[in-house]
Write a sequence for this structure.
């Protein structure tokens, strides 16, 4: 879909067949990995220009400003592409829990290593 | 494809249309996010049973034990699913640089927030 994302950035971004890249969200200060969400060009554009983490919801098929309904905002401190341009790392200041289940991080289901 | 992954874990994993989930790799101790790779059921099974980070290469279409050719191994300390079961977080002890470009982390291309 058309987007206002800087063409120089769009050219470095390698999207999957659905036009998305995974966005890893890390908490500033603690370094905790809070969640993983998805971005298309427009979500990245909105994130970079507003400083508020904005994702594409694959299930609801709509843009989603983190905290818009929950109040659990993410103020974005930095955004970095990886070496292949197919993933994004955000560092954020997280208000409240990042996870919709109420936990600070979404990664709480630890698997056993044998 | 068939896999020996514990069916109880496989049932909790929500794979994309290509059968993959993104795996975020975080360094134990420093908390640095090193890279993002992809896993199918079998890659997760091999990771959990060997303790060596094993991914699915989307470009080469083959399993890939991190460090097998570079020597830059990842010894896996923990593996956690997120709340939706559609992403995995690994914490690892990283030998050498994680990135094939020679940098410690793959996320070196910082974008400007305006």
């Amino acid at each position: 879909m058309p987007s206002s994302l800087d063409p120089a950035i769009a050219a470095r971004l390698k999207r999957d067949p659905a036009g998305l890249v995974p966005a890893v969200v890390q908490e500033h200060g603690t370094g905790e990995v809070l969640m993983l969400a998805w971005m298309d060009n427009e979500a990245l554009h909105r994130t970079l220009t507003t400083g508020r983490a904005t994702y594409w919801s694959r299930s609801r098929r709509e843009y989603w400003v983190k905290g818009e309904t929950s109040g659990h905002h993410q103020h974005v401190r930095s955004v970095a592409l990886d070496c292949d341009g197919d993933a994004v790392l955000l560092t954020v200041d997280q208000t409240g829990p990042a996870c919709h289940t109420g936990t600070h991080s979404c990664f709480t289901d630890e698997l056993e290593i044998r």
